[in-house]
Amino acid sequence: MIPETGRRRxxxxxxxxxxxxxxxxxxxxxxxxxxxxxxxxxxxxxGIAVSKLDDPxxxxxxxxxxxxxxTQWDDGRHTGTAPGEVASSSxxxxxxxxxxxxxxxxxxxxxxxxxxxxxGWCAAxxxxxxxxxxxxxxxxxxxxxxxxxxxxxxxxxYPRLVVGDGLLGWPEGAPYDGVLVTAGVRQVxxxxxxxxxxxxxxxxxxxxxxxxxxxxxxxxxxxxxTASGCFSRATRFxxxxxxxxDWPAYEDYLPPGDDWPAGTRRSTAGxxxxxxxxESGYAAFDFVTxxxxxxxxxxxxxxxxxxxxxxxxxxxxxxxxxxxFDEGDPAASRVYQGGPRGLWDEVEAAHxxxxxxxxxxxxxxxxxxxxxGRQRVWLREPSSPVPLSPASRP
Length: 394
Ligand SMILES: C[S@@+](CC[C@H](N)C(=O)[O-])C[C@H]1O[C@@H](n2cnc3c(N)ncnc32)[C@H](O)[C@@H]1O
Known about the structure:
The protein has helices spanning 5-16, 22-30, 56-63, 94-104, 121-130, 142-154, 190-194, 273-276, 284-292, 343-356; strands at residues 40-43, 50-51, 69-73, 87-91, 112-115, 135-139, 160-163, 176-181, 196-206, 213-221, 227-236, 265-268, 296-302, 308-314, 320-325, 334-338, 365-369, 375-379. By secondary structure, it is an alpha+beta fold. The protein is globular and about 65 Å long.
């Protein structure tokens, strides 16, 4: 039985939301998350550190909350209690962890490869459910892996931990029945598919560079070496190290100074700000825009004058767009575009495509990875591929 009220409350919440199913209950009860959390941690991947030493009650409340908790910043280069720039390791939100476990469809004796050991909590839960001989977990960061190893030992769990690049999988343990990736993926490596038996399942947060959003993909490996399946819920995950976005520098797109460069195309926006900006970060249209307007990254900023501005930067070339939204009079929103692509025009076209199809949500899309490693996203059926924007078609 679980002794602490907080853990019991979290368990009840996870059961109520459908994340924690009966086959995972024993593992949840046997493996307390708090054993895998550091003394100083950043709940909700946010800016405020919580210290076990200074405020043990608060620390425990967060440990028992259904939120992600950052445990490392900037690949370990950053120290101290202030947050760093990029959270680079964390304990994922428990609800999401169990959601992904369910998507993995494990069975007794199934062999699982986890990519992204992080704190080690998932590896411990998988070990409790499947037996530690059936669990391999790969972590790219040596210090993170070492801390996870100690935490796992304190919980009496000894799955195979590998320090290395999880994009390569771990062929020595193949074939796997399931691959669970707990870092955001932009390009699925063939290794994961090749190391999974036909009928086996890959579960991962997958997305584009457009925003930090991913959706959970569940791909089933076929005999012909392809892997295919649907997305489910939207999420936000720190990315696989080698697939992080190398953020473009503003100066590479626009020269310094207040004036727009020669050749800037000016127009007004055909969409109001609320159609393209959702502060939750989980909007289906953001996911869709990332598919239809590839090789593009978006940011928002509110200027000192209070004007909401959206910036788009092309990753394959130096195309850019800025949209100054007029929230009182959407038709008066000003658009400035430069470079070979009309990035805002592409966003508007993506919106028309999405609206014409009834504004489908994440779960209506699917992903196929072909035997030669290409990724195709489709709507409702693998035979209905999501079209690339004309500007980015090869
Ligand atoms: C969200 S955390 C994983 C959470 C973890 N499953 C847990 O239970 O705490 C993501 C982890 O993926 C790791 N990572 C990033 N890129 C990786 C790669 N190429 N191979 C293996 N691990 C990687 C990060 O260092 C980080 O620790």
